[in-house]
Structure formats: C-alpha cells, structure tokens
Amino acid sequence: MKTLLKSFAIVLLFFISTFFDLKAQPVPLPENVTSFLNQHFSGAFITFFSRNTFDYSYNLELSNGFETDFYRDGDWKEIDGQGTVIPQSIIETLPVDLKDYLGQNYKDKKVMTLFQNYKKEIIVTLDDKTELTFDRYGKFISIGKEKD
Description:
The chain has 148 residues and is α+β, with helices and mostly antiparallel strands. 31% of the residues lie in helices and 30% in strands. The protein has helices at 2-23, 31-40, 88-91, 96-105, and strands at 46-51, 58-62, 67-70, 76-80, 111-117, 121-126, 130-135, 140-145. An 8-stranded antiparallel beta sheet has the order 1-2-3-4-5-6-7-8. The longest helix is centred in the first third of the chain and has 22 residues, at 2-23. The radius of gyration is 22 Å and the shape is globular. The chain starts with a helix and ends with a strand.
C-alpha cells in the first residue's frame, strides 16, 4: 500500500510540475516589440506580461516603472511613464509635424504618456495634464485636460 501511495504521489508531482512548466513558458513577442524595448528601454526588463485575448494586444510593465501596450502587429499602442518622462528617443520617432508643434508651443513641457488610437490618432499627455490630439501624420486636432 505504501508503495502504491508513493507511486501515486510521484506521478501526481510529475503532472503538477509539467503543468506549471507549460504555464511558465513565455509567449514570444513580435520582433518589432523586442527591438523597440531594446532601443528605448535597454536597461529595463519585463516585470509583468499579459496578452489580451480579445484583440491580442500585449501589455508589459517594465522594471523602470514604464507601462507599454502594443498592438498584435507589434506597433506601440500606449507608453506610460507612470510619472516619468517619455524617453527622447521615442519622441524622435513621432511624426515631424507633431514634434514641431510640441517644440513651438510646449517646449518647456515634458511628455508623460503617448497613446496611439488604432493608428488613426496620437494623444500626447504633458506634465501639466494637457492632452494634445494629433492625426497619425502629426497634424494637430484638439486640446483638452486629462481627467483624474
């Protein structure tokens, strides 16, 4: 009886460990997500990962406090510094008209979040909670205030 019980316990442990090993396997990120992270957040690592089963987007939290969301094709959806300024290297990737508008009208303000609305609009939130909306080409559309 003890032998049967030990055998059952060993088999049960094997199945449990196999189950947890399978669940721990990371989902591979699209190459452009990995490149984006390496280029703009080279010193940070992923502390949290989830994949939305509705639209297959990726949500990542990084060790430097940033939260980043990516569409399933790997293009960024949202970048939130959680109180930290968005890296200049990311700002440099934005459309020229958008960067020019920020430079001309908000040169003393810092970009805190970026949101790309299905690649139709880009919403920029500044350190004073001002929200600026641009079309995907960087043309200014509207201004508002972030809601608390």
